[in-house]
Amino acid sequence: MTTLPLRAALVVAIATSASIAACANNAPMASGTDSAVRLTTAQPVRLSPGQVARLPDGSRLRYELVVNDSRCKPGVQCVWAGDAELRFSWLRSNAPTQVFSLHTQLQPRTQVLGANTLHIEDVARGEAPAATVRLD
């Protein structure tokens, strides 16, 4: 029987663990362990970057990140209020994922998601700001 040196065995163990973790993270969520918040019409929901919301039709909306934020800082007088651009992913079964951005001041400010329209109501400040969104 051939034995691997300790270093090689450690590399194999780490690679195997990483592979298993990657598969687990890419697996679809089981309905019993769904951690998505519910996003219903006319009821604002606050999402953190990376958080997923379930829409009334069963599709999912993921708030990815703030792409750009040129909003005027609090306590500073600006000529223009500025704009924040947020990226989202809309995940539907049997359809490709749709990635889109919405703005707080510029266009587009809304996105049609099936029978509903998504609006940004507020964007917090900071490194990973939360966004308050609403469906109509």
Kindly describe this structure.
- It is elongated, with a radius of gyration of 20 Å.
- It has 136 residues and is an alpha+beta fold.
- The chain has one domain (36-135).
- It has one helix spanning 6-26; strands at residues 37-38, 45-47, 52-54, 60-69, 84-91, 98-103, 110-113, 116-123, 131-135.
- The longest helix is centred in the first third of the chain and has 21 residues, at 6-26.
- Helix content is 15%, strand content 36%.
- Mean pLDDT is 80; it is low at 6-32.
- The strands form 2 sheets. A 5-stranded mixed sheet has the order 1-3-4-5-6, with no helix packed on it.
- It has 1 helix and 9 strands.
- Strand 5 and strand 6 form a beta hairpin.
Regions with pLDDT < 50 over 5+ consecutive residues?
Answer: 6-32
Choose one word for the global shape.
elongated
Separate helix tally: 1
Order of helices and strands: HEEEEEEEEE
Helical percent range? 10-25%
* Total E-strand runs: 9
- Overall residue-averaged pLDDT value: 80
- Major sheet attributes: 5 strands, mixed
Give the strand content: 35-45%
Strand order of the largest sheet: 1-3-4-5-6
SSE layout and pairing:
Elements: H1 6-26, E1 37-38, E2 45-47, E3 52-54, E4 60-69, E5 84-91, E6 98-103, E7 110-113, E8 116-123, E9 131-135
Parallel strand pairs: 1-3
Antiparallel strand pairs: 2-9, 3-4, 4-5, 5-6, 7-8, 8-9
Summarize the structure.
The protein is α+β, with helices and mostly antiparallel strands and 136 residues long. The chain has one helix spanning 6-26; strands at residues 37-38, 45-47, 52-54, 60-69, 84-91, 98-103, 110-113, 116-123, 131-135.
